[in-house]
Amino acid sequence: MNLQARNTRGNTNGNLPRELSRLFLGLIGLGGLGLAIGAFAGAERLWANLLIVTFFGAGLGLGGLLFLAFHYLTGAKWSDPLRRVAEAVASVLPASALALGVVVAAGLSHYPWTHEDLASHATWWFKAAWLEPSFFLIRTAAYLILWILFSAAMVRASQREDSNRRAGARRWNVRLSALFLVVFSVTLWLATTDWIMSLEPEWYSTIFAVYHFAGILLSGLALITLLAVGLRRSGTLEGIIRDSHYHDLGKLLFGFSSFWMYIWFCQYMLIWYANIPEETAYFVRRTQGAWEPLFVLNFCLNWAVPFLVLLPRAAKQSGGVLVKVAVVLLVGRWLDLYLAIVPAVTPDAPVPGLAELGTALAGAGILGLLLLRSIHRAPEPAEAIREPLGAAT
């Protein structure tokens, strides 16, 4: 999928990669300036935003790996032309994971359990043992190393399959994907508990990891959709990605947006109905004062807008509509993480400013450069992928 090798096809502008690189570098510059100024707003607020951006980036990489794993485990054929896009998204995971590890380790003091005696609570003995700082950092390193190793192995194996069309190559990818899903399910469950839920150690939810799984998969699909439409329009994947793929991606966005809402409602409704103080504190904090509009906006961006817009069949087949919905979902994922992290670190009313804008711009710029590099270095899709394939049923 080398951009320079295919820049003469269709309506592609040969200077597009260079222009995009300048745009992303500009975003990084503006974001860095915003971060430098926004640092005066407080170390806790700055750290919370860095945790949001790095976890967001790692989640996108995991979303790309999930797409590849589901592709192989289901034996899908329609998604073959999208493998290069998913590989590019998954390739951002190593850098994002390393940045996330640095942010978590550097901000350990922002977790309340590092300066509170959890063992003094009669029923918190396990929390006190589990959240021992050294053990916490060892687990963090283990999660990230496993994710990075699977990212490298799965992307390499997927690319090699195009040059080795034997059945054994695909069987290896199926086994690797199955192993990844097992490891991912356990590590994501523990990682979200460690990095996000423990910001409020008195609170707990038994489906918190499932909720973030839904957000990670949905945001990964949104980025894959955004790239697929952009690469087709630029000519890079012209003749490989077709209208049927738009329709399939639209159905996935529609379906998993509804799945996200289902998990969101399950978590909220059960906690509201049970009315246990240890559980309700999480939502009470986020549904009062200036947090309430953001709370409502969260499920509007992640479900209401995609659901209503993608209901018509024609909307799912429109590249322009899919791009807009994908952007809405990516913004919604950022807001979802903002509401999960910031109220726990800085419980006062939200005051969006340069710290938030700077981290978002810098993160978008770095992510864009990583994606551009991955797409530029990716091998050409195999000829078998170029053949017309039926849409998914």
Which helices and strands occur, and which strands form pairs?
Elements: H1 16-38, H2 43-73, H3 83-90, H4 93-106, H5 125-130, H6 133-163, H7 167-195, H8 208-234, H9 243-274, H10 277-286, H11 291-309, H12 313-316, H13 319-345, H14 354-377, H15 383-386
Helix pairs in contact: 1-14, 2-3, 2-4, 2-6, 2-7, 2-8, 2-13, 2-14, 3-6, 3-14, 4-6, 6-7, 7-8, 8-9, 8-13, 9-11, 11-13
How does this structure look, described?
This protein is mainly alpha-helical and 393 residues long. It is 74% helix and 0% strand. The protein has 15 helices and no strands.
In short:
With 393 residues, this protein is mainly α.
Return the structural class: mainly alpha
Radius of gyration: 21 Å
Number of helices: 15
Using DSSP, what is the number of strands? Answer: 0
Helices and strands, in order, run as HHHHHHHHHHHHHHH
Shape: globular
Distance between the termini: 27 Å
- Provide the residue-averaged pLDDT: 88
Helix content: over 70%
Strand coverage percent: under 5%
Task: Supply database-style keywords.
single chain; mainly alpha
